[in-house]
Amino acid sequence: MHPAIYGPEHLALQDSLKKFIESEINPFVDEWEKAEIFPAHELFRKMGKLGFLGVHKPVDSGGMGLDYSYAAAFAEALSHTRCGGIPMAIGVQTDMATPALAKRGSDEVKKMFLEPSISGEYVACLGVSEVGAGSDVASIRTTARKDGDDYVIDGGKMWTTNGTQADWICLLANTSEGGGHKNKSLICVPMKTKGISVAKKLKKVGMNASDTAQLHFDSVRVPQRWRIGEEGMGFIYQMEQFQEERLWAGAGWQKSKHVIQETIDYLRERRAFGKPLLDNQYIYYKLAELQTEVEAVGALFHKAVGLYVQGHDVTQLASMVKLKGARVAREVADWCVQFWGGMGYIEETRVNRFWRDTRLGSIGGGADEVMMGIIAKTMGILPRQG
Questions:
Q1: Do residue 271 and residue 216 come from a single domain?
Q2: Does residue 294 sit within a domain?
Q3: Of 112, 247, 271, 356, which residue is most buried, by most CB within 10 angstroms?
Q4: Tens digits of per-residue pLDDT, 212-256?
Q5: Is 7 left (phi over 0), alpha (psi -120 to 50) or beta?
Q6: Model-level pTM?
Q7: Are 333 and 325 in contact (CB under 8 A)?
Q8: Domain identity same for 143 and 162
Q9: Please, are residues 233 and 68 in contact by the beta-carbon 8 Å criterion?
Q10: Does residue 369 carry a catalytic annotation?
Q11: Catalytic residue among 115, 130, 244, 245
Q12: Residues with Cβ < 8 Å from 171, sequence gap 6 or more?
């Protein structure tokens, strides 16, 4: 079964991606997890040649020019990857660092940064979060002051996925004094520009195959014409990008289904007290409940995607998808580790990796509490501040 928003072309795209994952990603996942990095340029070039990095991007920049439902189908199929870090890194390239550039960028910046990101020649990263500003985007402190025709950037970014390998960063910075929502701009910055340094590569509990960096900017000079869209509109553009990022996060609901199925297969074989563990009513009832929760997330995701394709603002639904999807994934992971018993606590099992990887879902890209605040605001029930 597949949702009404998917037709034969969507399924063909998913099949192609699944085959690519089985041949080019999964055989190397364990190695990349141990190394805590994967060869992004090598993998992205392969993906770029097959058109995977530009499904929803404009044809004149090298993309397929398809509507967002194809990007959603693509994101769902990434769940066949046997880790969370690599799909996350791909998602940064396709749905987090590039949507505003594709929609708002000038011909020059699209040629310089978007085209090579779609072809896989460039690896992209997104610079929003900082040490003192994660979910509270308005409070970022990185500045880009005008000097002639240039911006001079000072500050730092934290938790930057792809940060140690990226060729360019979609950077959110304060370009003027004033209010937190009206003084920010998105700027394309090549990572080899003088003054940019990787302060350190961060060691994480999960998502290990994906490199994550803390970045420092010291008098980094770039032309103002590398800004995306209008000056001062960066906060708004980033909020628009967050819609696609949060929808993308919701596409991971399929991974929970895979883990439930692997757990069922294991419990059929694992015997205790003279019978398979799966024969315990408590266990199969709980698995039935979890499967229902997962399917509910999938239905919410497909509703949001369908409306987004039609041009609706899905801020509320995208926030719900991310909130519920992350919480259900955490619940699935925790119960499945429990049912696997001692084997669930062994690092190399997929269920354990899923357990470690999924914890990020309720933190990254806007914490659960931020999602609830957005949902409350769109319901008209958020108290006035101050």
A1: no
A2: yes
A3: 247
A4: 999 999 999 999 999 999 999 999 999 888 888 999 999 999 999
A5: beta
A6: 0.94
A7: no
A8: yes
A9: no
A10: no
A11: 245
A12: 127, 142, 144, 153, 157, 186, 187, 188, 189
